[in-house]
Amino acid sequence: MFSKKLGFALGALMIFLAGVAFILGRPPHRDARIYPLVRQYTPFVIEKSLGGLKIRRKDDPKFKEEPDAVNFYPRLQELEQAWATRHLRLEGNTLTILDDQGKPLKTIPLQNEKEKRFILEYYKVKAQ
Length: 128
Hints:
Shape: elongated
């Protein structure tokens, strides 16, 4: 009923679509030194479950988002950028993490331009 060519074409299409989904679902580049330091202070937690990944807030137990696999990391980045506008301040080569009242929690000296560029591009923080 089906020819072998049709079977191979369907198989190739499935492999192609899986590859595209994998490429689109990758997280954006994150600096290996700066991101974990800032991540300690962000209120967002990634939870793994059978249904996929969920985003929760440490300070709000009612907050829960379950974006699909392709949109998960872009949505997490959106939430982190919204948090960063109020809680991160970049002055020269120094990154300051602020609490909810605007008081400094931690100061991180940036070691090179690559780290500064990461803060400017990933978190969209404006240098002062």
